[in-house]
Amino acid sequence: MDARTPFGQSYYPPIPTPFTKRMRTNLLWQLLRFVVINVKILRMVRKH
Predict the structure, then answer these.
(1) Is the entire prediction scored with pTM above 0.85?
(2) 3-state secondary structure the chain
(3) Which of 32, 10, 15, 14 is nearest to 23 (CA)?
């Protein structure tokens, strides 16, 4: 049986920490992640 009760604390998803919220809205961090992900994709495309 499922131990969760409707509208109980365990029913809702976890709330992001202030640090996580700050990183999600930081444009420099987003730019860095964008570059890193694109480099990974380019490496993968070059191999195949």
Answers:
(1) no
(2) CCCCCCCCHHHCCCCCCHHHHHHHHCHHHHHHHHHHHHHHHHHHHHHC
(3) 32
